[in-house]
Design brief:
14 helices; 8-stranded parallel barrel; 41% helix; two-stranded antiparallel ribbon; alpha/beta; globular
């Protein structure tokens, strides 16, 4: 090899390419490549034999919101109390207008005195707390006393029944939708719930609905889910366990598969937005519809089919951290609601699978009473009979032997409102 200078020869000995002046036959591009090679790839002499250390990663700051509410421990305790074995919820939170319709069905005028008499009958049933762990009240009832002058909240507490309160303001048309609705009541909710807590309420209920015949539209599903999530977060901040009720209305001719499809979407959206709002799942209760065919569908489902579809949906969508699933009856007959619940409790579940029934507990009781004082005990016995039947269903031990024909009559009302 020929060298043009001693300097270049030294560079070759050291196995380092040095930028020398180009020979007449060399192109500038070749020398530029040599310079790049030296600066980019080859180690310096001082680094020979040394292991190069990777640069230390730069710290990354991650911002997280961790919920730590003042009532967290109490919320968990309340939810577990309501979701206790063999017990469920008595929903007696009908608005005054809806209660008036019930009273009218037995020939009574819708007056505060008549509403008070009927509610007194319900909460003073002897031994009711053996089967009922919580009672959802309307605002009037929360502040009401029995006909004997004792506070209804105190009567419930003595029966070891947790008092609850309906906090939504009802359904109104949802603009921009397919004749669907949304639930109002978020305005002023925090201050109202603070007052309800002071009055003795320890859980709340918010009902919103989704209609399958009307879609449901994406707008209606998201509105329902977001409203439930905001309500749940506000309730927990004020010490009330939120009962989250995304009701899939029974209206329609659709089959059970369509109900499953819609419910799967609604439940997914609801839990997504609750997570977005930092709702503590250990301190809520879910009050969903069972997965059944539409009320006008010709293909009826057996309790085993309802159980299979509903439990499959629960396992797909509901975190096991949720303490209790308190199903609504949604217009099923008293016996049908109990049979379906019993079918779902034939094996172990990660949640307390129970009931939160209104008509499915009260229908026979109301008719038996008929507004007559002498019928109070018989009416209370009818209430206790249904409460015990559903208590057994929660334990998976119910049988329909001996059920009256009246208890098997359906109670579906199209476009039902509270």
């Amino acid at each position: 090899m020929l060298f043009r200078s001693c300097k270049e020869k030294a560079c070759v000995k050291e196995r380092v390419v040095a930028p020398c002046s180009p020979l007449p036959s060399e192109k500038p591009e070749a020398m530029a490549s040599a310079t790049l090679l030296k600066s980019s790839f080859l180690p310096k002499k001082s680094e020979w034999g040394a292991t190069r250390q990777a640069a230390a990663p730069k710290p990354v700051t991650v911002s997280m919101v961790v919920r730590a509410g003042a009532y967290d421990d109490e919320l968990v305790k309340t939810a577990k109390t309501i979701a206790s074995p063999g017990r469920g919820i008595l929903a007696m939170d009908e608005s005054n207008a809806t209660c008036g319709k019930r009273l009218a069905s037995i020939g009574l005028e819708n007056t505060e005195a008549n509403r008070q008499a009927y509610r007194t009958l319900l909460v003073t049933a002897p031994g009711l707390g053996q089967y009922i762990s919580g009672a959802i009240l309307f605002e009037e009832t929360l502040y009401q006393s029995t006909v004997d002058g004792k506070k209804i909240v105190d009567i419930l507490t003595e029966q070891k029944i947790v008092p609850g309160i309906k906090v939504d303001k009802g359904l109104v048309p949802l603009a921009g939708s397919n004749n669907e609705s949304w639930c109002q009541g978020l305005d002023g909710l925090a201050s109202r719930e603070a007052a309800y807590y002071q009055q003795g309420a320890r859980f709340a209920k918010w009902r919103t609905v989704v209609s399958i015949p009307n879609g449901p539209s994406e707008l209606a599903v998201k509105e329902a889910a977001w409203g439930l999530a905001r309500y749940a977060a506000i309730s927990q901040d004020n010490g009330l366990v939120p009962i989250v009720e995304p009701e899939i209305l029974l209206d329609g001719e659709h089959g059970i598969d369509r109900t499953f499809e819609v419910a799967q979407k609604v439940w997914a959206e609801t839990f997504f937005y609750m997570a977005e709002n930092n709702v503590m799942f250990e301190g809520i209760l879910l009050k969903p519809s069972m997965v059944t065919p539409g009320a006008e569908c010709k293909d009826r489902a057996t309790p085993e089919q309802v159980s299979d579809y509903t439990l499959k949906l629960l396992h797909r969508r509901i975190p096991p951290a949720v303490p209790g699933i308190m199903f609504l009856s949604g217009g099923q007959s008293e016996v049908e609601a109990t049979q379906n619940l019993n079918a779902m409790n034939q094996g172990p579940n990660p949640w307390h699978v129970s009931f939160s029934y209104a008509r499915a507990l009260q229908n026979t009781c109301l008719k038996t009473w008929g507004g007559q004082p002498e019928n109070v005990k018989a009416a209370q016995d009818a209430l206790l009979l249904r409460a015990k039947a559903n208590s057994l269903a929660q334990l998976g031990k119910y049988t329909s032997d001996g059920e009256a024909a009246e208890a098997k009559e359906g109670m579906f009302v199209k476009n039902y409102v509270y």
